[in-house]
Amino acid sequence: MVSKPEMKGHKLDEIDRKILRILRTDGRISNQKLADSVHLSPTPCWNRVRALEEQGYIEGYAAILSQRALGLPDTVIIEVTLERHDEDMLERFGAALAELPEVMEASLLTGDYDYLIKVAVAGTEGYERFLRQRLYKIPGIRHSRSTFVLRTLKRTHSVEP
What we know:
This protein is α+β, with helices and mostly antiparallel strands. 35% of the residues lie in helices and 19% in strands. It contains 5 helices and 4 strands. The chain has a 4-stranded antiparallel β-sheet with strand order 2-3-1-4. The chain starts with 13 loop residues before the first helix and ends in a 13-residue tail after the last strand.
């Protein structure tokens, strides 16, 4: 599970927000270009980025991989209901999901379903293989419902500050 960062009372100013907006879309930007973009010299810009990291506003940096290039062009959203809702069952199911390489995202929910799982697969054959060989091997599933994504209209990896 992802935990919430502990903020140390730092209130974001407009320069911090600009830095976060730029890094959100280009995590590989050089410090010099970032500094130029927010009208700071390099050292104060670097100090602000480090402070934003230390205060938990920036959790990390990652490369966004192409599902299509990796041979997994299709996305399936799976809703799962478990047989039981005790802490042990939730913990074991969540840990098992985290180990599956096809699972891009998994969330514990309120409402009719317990989990919402986003999975990358190669067509219906890849999806069936994922269900039979991976998901349905995890004990405790009572019911699941799946939907293939036709087109992604918006994809972002964080909110805009």
